[in-house]
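Student: Send me a single protein entry containing the residue sequence and its fold in token form, directly below this note:

Tutor:
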Amino acid sequence: MAKTATAQTRSFSKPVLDQTLTIHSQNAQYVLQRGHSFLLVVRALYALSVVLRIIGEDAEMDQIEALVSERIEAVAKRLQDEHTRLKALADEEGGVPIPRYTHPRAVTLQLSSPQLAQYVRLVLLLDKTLMLLDGLWFAGVLSNKQRKNATYDLRRLVYGLGRSLIDLERRARDSALRAGKQAELQAADEAVTGIATGSLVDEQDEAQALEPPPAATVDPTAIERSTEDMQVEDDAEPEAQAHHAALQSISAK
């Protein structure tokens, strides 16, 4: 009986949207490729959009979903503003050539939630903005230092968003666990492995990342972080700090 129930749970038919995209710049690829972070973003957004909405408290999930939307929209605006600024610089030059990239990566993703679709659009906008940035660099409008600093800031913006979404889901997950919903969360973690495919992580890393999580509380922050992970957090901007303060107030309730 237990085996039948497990099989039925794992074969549950979930709605997904398949999207094939090409990422040109290395730094945009990095957002999808770095360690297990993208897989954790997939899991976090699926849990927030579907699982925790079903098993969580409506009032709390309304607050959390509002924070998710605000954070994604804020990053989208900043990326769009930067693209507009760079486009104005290019127009002043009468246009700049967009370079060819030596190793573009085509990837098909299974989008499991509207919020994940929004996050992927941010990665595409990041790639588009970095291509324009490189064009300005080739045209001599930007110096080596300006290009390096702008590239780092743009990548950190999207990468930092992913980390904050993971942190937000962890706090909502802790709340559900305190409410005795451990079995539901474990089932959700098993289900999400099938829709996390298609990222740019290495095959070996992907196999490790898709191993079923332990029954105990899953804490994405317990995964070993790179030096850049810690740098992103150490360099958190004022609005990011305010965002984390808001999350802590919700978790404390």
Remarks:
- The two ends are 39 Å apart (CA to CA).
- Residues 4-9, 203-253 have pLDDT under 50 and may be disordered.
